[in-house]
C-alpha cells in the first residue's frame, strides 16, 4: 500500500516536472506564429544592404526558409492536383469500359 | 576619556532614535506604495545604486560566447524576444504599451540605444562587454520588485544568449526588419532550439 502511494506520488511529481519543463518550449508559441513578411525586403534600400551583416544574413536565411516552405507547399498542391486528375481520369476510363 | 564616553553615548542614542524612528515610519504605512506615485529622489537613488552594484558584481564573472553575431542567434533570440519581452520593452515603431505606462520603474525601451534608455554603454568595447554580461544576468535572474522575471528556470543559457545577441542589434532594426527576424514562420525548429 505504502509502495503504491509512493509510486503514485513519484509518477505525478515526475509528470509535473516534465510538463513544467515544456512550458516555454518554442513550439508553444507556434499556435499564433506570424509568417515573415519577406515581400517587405523588396522595398528596402538595396544600396545600404551589406551581405556580411549578420542582420542581413539572418533575414536572407529566414526568407530562404520561407520561400522553400512556400515552394514545397506549391509542389505538394501541384502533386495533389495531378494525382486527383490522374485518379479522376482512371475513374473516367473505367466508366467507359 | 570622558569625551570619548560622551561621543559613544551620543552615537548610541542617535542610532537608537534612528532605529525607533525608522521602525515607526515603517509600521505607520505612510510610505506611498502605489506604482503610480514615484519614489522620492533618495529612495530612488538608494534602490538604483543597490541594483546596479549588485548586478555588476554578480555579472562580472560571466563568459561571453564568441559567436554572438551569428545569424542563427538573431533568429532564435528575435522570436523569443517578440514573444516574451516586446510587451514591456517594445519593438521598433512602438513608443509605449500598457506595461510601459503602468509599471514602476518603467521598463527600459530596448529599441533605443543604451545611452538613450539610461545606460551609457555604446561605442566602447569594454563597456559593451559589461552591458552584454549585465543583460544576460538580468534576463536569467530577473530583478526583484521591478516586474522583470527570472527567465533562467525555464530557459537554458544558450537560449538566453540568443536573446542577448538579438538585443545587441535591436536598436538598429526597422519595423520591417524586426518583423522578418522575429516571425517564427513555419520552421522555428531550424532556429537553433
TrEMBL record, chain A:
Basic and acidic residues composition-biased segments: 68-97
Organism superkingdom: Bacteria
Key words, A-Z: Signal
Signal peptide: 1-23
Annotated region described as Disordered, given as residue ranges: 62-97
Protein name (record): Pentapeptide MXKDX repeat protein
From TrEMBL, chain B:
Domain Cytochrome c: 66-171
Keyword annotations of the record: Heme, Iron, Membrane, Metal-binding, Transmembrane, Transmembrane helix
Name this protein carries in UniProt: Cytochrome c family protein
Organism: Alcanivorax nanhaiticus
UniProt-recorded Gene Ontology molecular function terms: electron transfer activity; heme binding; metal ion binding
InterPro entries on file: Cyt_c-like_dom, Cyt_c-like_dom_sf
Domain of life: Bacteria
Membrane-spanning segments: 6-27
Coiled coil segments of this chain: none
Amino acid at each position: 500500500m505504502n509502495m503504491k502511494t509512493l509510486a503514485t506520488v513519484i509518477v505525478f511529481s515526475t509528470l509535473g516536472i516534465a510538463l513544467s519543463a515544456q512550458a516555454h518550449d518554442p513550439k508553444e508559441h507556434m499556435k499564433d506564429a506570424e509568417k515573415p513578411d519577406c515581400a517587405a525586403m523588396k522595398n528596402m534600400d538595396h544600396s545600404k544592404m551589406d551581405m556580411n551583416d549578420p542582420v542581413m544574413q539572418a533575414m536572407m536565411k529566414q526568407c530562404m526558409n520561407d520561400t522553400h516552405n512556400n515552394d514545397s507547399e506549391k509542389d505538394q498542391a501541384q502533386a495533389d492536383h495531378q494525382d486527383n486528375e490522374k485518379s479522376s481520369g482512371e475513374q473516367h476510363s473505367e466508366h467507359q469500359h | 576619556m570622558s569625551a570619548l564616553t560622551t561621543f559613544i553615548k551620543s552615537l548610541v542614542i542617535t542610532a537608537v532614535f534612528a532605529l525607533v524612528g525608522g521602525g515607526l515610519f515603517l509600521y505607520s504605512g505612510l510610505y506611498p506604495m502605489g506604482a503610480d506615485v514615484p519614489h522620492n529622489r533618495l529612495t530612488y537613488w538608494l534602490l538604483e545604486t543597490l541594483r546596479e552594484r549588485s548586478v555588476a558584481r554578480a555579472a562580472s564573472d560571466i563568459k561571453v560566447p564568441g559567436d554572438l553575431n551569428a545569424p542563427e542567434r538573431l533568429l532564435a533570440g528575435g522570436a523569443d524576444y517578440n514573444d516574451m519581452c516586446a510587451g514591456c520593452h517594445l519593438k521598433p515603431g512602438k513608443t509605449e504599451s500598457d506595461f510601459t505606462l503602468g509599471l514602476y520603474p518603467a521598463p527600459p525601451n530596448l529599441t533605443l540605444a543604451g545611452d538613450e534608455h539610461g545606460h551609457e554603454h555604446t561605442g566602447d568595447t569594454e563597456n559593451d562587454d559589461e552591458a552584454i554580461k549585465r543583460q544576460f544576468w538580468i534576463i536569467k535572474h530577473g530583478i526583484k520588485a521591478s516586474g522583470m522575471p527570472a527567465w533562467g528556470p525555464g530557459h537554458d543559457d544558450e537560449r538566453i544568449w540568443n536573446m542577448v545577441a538579438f538585443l545587441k542589434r535591436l536598436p538598429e532594426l526597422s519595423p520591417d526588419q524586426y518583423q522578418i527576424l522575429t516571425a517564427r514562420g513555419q520552421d522555428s525548429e531550424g532556429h537553433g532550439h
